[in-house]
Amino acid sequence: xxxxxxxxxxxxxxxxxxxxxxxxxxxxxxxxxxxxxxxxxxxxxxxxxxxxxxxxxxxxxxxxxxxxxxxxxxxxxxxxxxxxxxxxxxxxxxxxxxxxxxxxxxxxxxxxxxxxxxxxxxxxxxxxxxxxxxxxxxxxxxxxxxxxxxxxxxxxxxxxxxxxxxxxxxxxxxxxxxxxxxxxxxxxxxxxxxxxx
Length: 197
Description:
This protein is mainly alpha-helical. The chain has helices at residues 6-35, 51-57, 64-132, 136-160, 182-196; strands at 167-169, 177-179. The protein has a two-stranded antiparallel ribbon with strand order 1-2.
């Protein structure tokens, strides 16, 4: 089911307000008017008119010029109500988005803390053991561990330092995307390699 846009909701509330002004407010005003004793010299009435007759007379075509201002009043009231509802809805959506962003920021900070600690420990031990190891195969494995630990550290630091988000498709289905950090990652890896030497 397609959701309504904000303008559609405002238009519908204005229309409903106009209808309510004509069908409810105008007859109500006539009812109140009919409850008071009044004299209509043109009709020769000298006492109070029956309230129900006043309500029915509000729908007489001759009363249309009086009903239109009530319809306009209802429409304007509906318009203001529509703007108020939309402002509240927009504010609620913004609060939801801010909460989601804050939750993601906290998640990223937590993951960064634990991943950086683990990567630095693994990379540090691997770098230390490379210097001591004589077996070439084990050295290659240790170098791979050190390089991947540096890569993890680079990825985390790149994500933490992003100023703008670019994404690219991760899977061929076209719906799964990932953040493109290739440029930032290259810079961080070069910086980490310089630090190792």
